[in-house]
Design a protein that fits this description.
Radius of gyration: 28 Å
Structural class: alpha/beta
Distance between the termini: 83 Å
Strand order of the largest sheet: 12-15-18-11-19
Number of strands: 19
Helix content: 25-40%
Shape: elongated
Strand content: 15-25%
Largest sheet: 5 strands, parallel
């Protein structure tokens, strides 16, 4: 006689968890265990982990034919999170564990040979999947995920299944991340560079890309590292979206769950897979880990040109699509790009204090590593000069992060009011934002004849591309929001254009 049972589980694909049913059959046949259903090597190795865990916890491995089917069979499965549901399925199918333990629950977890249950990456994604299916989540760990209405339980090892209540209820506990905010670098440490601070404030207020070019020691990295201190907090939807990516990647999500936006700073030796995503199994890259936050690329021309060009599509689309033999996988990638670069190989092109030692061909080759198409997608570009010694000694007395952040929050609040008013004025209602289509960006600026004449004449004089022109309008709209202005004026346009056309690039 053959006994069967089914255990609810899930697998990670991209940043989502997809339901998988672990079907276990125990009955007559050649003694052994086989796993079918497009299982990868890690899942096939579960046979030995499950066998060792069951025996170590005082249960018996049936001396019968055990067949494990992971349904749907057409979907490729990977990872070690199926250990726990497979073991449960065997114990229930062989009559050693009460089948009521499986009702209304989704199980994920890796097993050790002594029966202990280990957590797997993607707990938040599994929780979202369980909540969507109307199930509770059973995994390993004391920290629950912040999903209202989701019951979450923990199991330490398989031996707990011998008790009436094998699962421990866990609840979400908000940790104190206030100290991390207080210890963040402050803009008051940056002496001078008020123009660069203004550019950083505009970039954060509107989510614009920012490029700073200057010689070594001019303060580019110092400015960029302090942008995190003026980022607005994550809202609930952004928090879950960003935390899901980090959870799938196996990274800590505590700071994100406190509303702190991610700030990623990859080294310039990063590969395309490391920056955009990929590998086997597929893992989100740095641009996805920066989702709803900031990606800082220091020494921009030192990145491989092919790696930099891979950023072009995600910057515009807000996501990255990786194509594999078994289908396409999408990762979110809506981030604010901040970059710093030297103007030439020696770094001193245009410096007031030290002459450049590079030849013209060297300079051109160095700057060409970034590429015009990527540069065209960066909204704000400015030169950062080295400061004299007496200015550096005044560090600590400049504009601080609290002041800049207050301006960012005010600008975003005004922008939301403006969008709400537009939704009421326009029928049918539309969802307009600074980052939408060109026609919507132009409409949001409410340009008069004087403003149109000014921006078109400047665009013709500077040979701006269509993308660069729309980029200037987006920045001008953000500047107007910072000044609580419903309309974009010529002054706003002039400042946006000034941040677009670097002196050193002319």
């Amino acid at each position: 006689m053959r006994s069967q049972c089914a255990v609810a589980s899930a697998l990670i694909r991209g940043v989502d968890a997809i339901p998988v049913t672990v079907e276990v059959s125990v009955g007559a046949g050649l003694v052994g265990m086989s796993i079918v259903g497009m299982a990868d090597t890690a899942i096939q190795e579960a046979r030995e982990r499950v066998r060792g865990a069951i025996i170590s916890c005082g249960f018996a491995v049936p001396s019968q034919k055990i067949v494990v089917n992971l349904a749907p069979g057409s979907l490729r499965k990977s990872g070690s999170g199926f250990d726990l549901p497979i073991a449960l399925g065997i114990l229930v199918a062989s009559g050693q564990v009460d089948p009521a333990f499986l009702e209304g629950r989704l199980f994920v977890g890796e097993l050790s040979l002594d029966g202990g249950v280990r957590p797997v990456a993607g707990t938040l994604a599994f929780g979202i999947c369980a909540h969507r299916l109307g199930l509770s989540l059973v995994s390993c760990g004391d920290q629950a995920v912040p999903l209202e209405g989701l019951a979450q339980y923990s199991i330490r090892d398989l031996s707990a299944l011998a008790f009436e209540e094998p699962f421990t209820r866990v609840t979400y506990a908000r940790t104190n991340a206030e100290a991390s905010g207080k210890n963040a670098p402050d803009f008051c440490d940056v002496a001078g560079h008020e123009t660069a601070k203004r550019a950083a404030q505009i970039a954060v207020a509107g989510g614009h890309g920012l490029l700073m070019v200057g010689p070594p020691g001019s303060g580019k990295t110092m400015i960029a590292s302090r942008i995190a201190s003026i980022l607005p907090p994550l809202d609930q939807d952004e928090m879950l979206a960003a935390a899901a990516v980090h959870s799938v990647a196996g990274e800590d999500i505590d700071a994100i769950l406190q509303g702190i936006r991610p700030f990623r700073h990859p080294h310039h030796s990063a590969t395309i897979a490391g920056l955009v995503g990929g590998g086997s199994p597929i893992r989100p890259g740095e641009i996805s880990l920066a989702h709803c936050g900031t990606l800082f690329l220091d020494e921009l021309p030192e990145f491989k040109p092919a790696t930099l060009q891979s950023l072009r599509q995600p910057i515009e689309a807000g996501k990255v699509c990786l194509t594999r033999a078994d289908g396409n996988i999408e990762f979110p990638a809506r981030f604010m790009l901040v970059a710093a670069a030297n103007p030439c190989p020696c770094g001193y092109l245009g410096d007031d204090l030290r002459p450049c030692e590079c030849t013209i061909p060297q300079i051109r080759a160095y700057q060409a590593r970034v590429g015009g198409p990527l540069m065209d997608r960066i909204d704000l570009q400015l030169d950062v000069r080295r400061l004299p010694a007496d200015s550096i000694l005044s560090s600590g007395s400049g504009t601080d992060s609290a002041t800049l952040r207050q301006g960012v929050l005010a600008a975003r609040d005004f922008a939301e009011q403006r969008r709400q008013r537009r939704r009421m004025d326009v029928q049918p209602p539309v969802c307009e934002s600074v980052g939408n289509r060109p026609a919507e960006v132009i409409e949001s600026c409410a340009l008069g004849d004087e403003q149109r004449s000014f921006i078109t004449s400047m665009a013709d004089a500077e040979s701006l591309s269509g993308r660069a022109l729309v980029s200037c309008l987006k920045v001008a709209r953000t500047i107007a929001d910072m000044e609580q202005s419903w309309d974009v004026t010529c002054d706003h346009l002039a400042e946006a254009l000034a941040f677009r056309m670097r002196e050193g690039a002319r």
